[in-house]
Amino acid sequence: MRxxxxxxxxxxxxxxxxxxxxxASDPDILxxxxxxxxxxxxxxxxxxxKTTKASMVEFPALxxxxxxxxxxxxxxxxxxxxxxRSDAAGLLFLLDGSLEVGLIDTKNNLYTTKLQAGDIxxxxxxxxxxxxxxxxxxxxxxxxxxGSASARAVAVPPSVFASGIDDVILAKSFKTxxxxxxxxxxxxxxx
Length: 191
Description:
This protein is of the alpha+beta class. It is built from four helices and ten strands. The chain has a five-stranded antiparallel beta sheet, with no helix packed on it. The protein has a five-stranded antiparallel beta sheet with strand order 6-5-8-3-10. The termini are far apart. Mean pLDDT is 82; it is low at 28-47.
């Protein structure tokens, strides 16, 4: 009996010692994005772009799954202005139409390309990027997949010009005058 137990224990130890455990998953995310004080939402999408989302908000079962989707419908000559997603990479698949896409890498190099139906483009997490339907007649439709259950966009223009940063600081930062900064701010509030 003792030899059987000893043999079983030896077999178990050898099996555990020679087995390989593989863990391949994203870390659990407790919070994808923390809103600034006195804010209740972040909406960086212009009203002319129709977005149909499949995220944790619409499907709570996505919580902890590190994936979400969106269908983007851009009318002719519509721009999704420069924005970033600090919580997720994005994969854009163009279903129909054409889009100019661009991103700025960490060395401030701008990369642009023209996508046609069937093309795929990846936007790495945290990089500023945009999509622009340059066609004057045809809309563009794309599916975007994100590596987060609630990927959120942070639009660059309102983040910089509508965040309450003093006009003097912005003017110095952009090497311009205060009147120019005020014109930019006025343009953002009227669009």
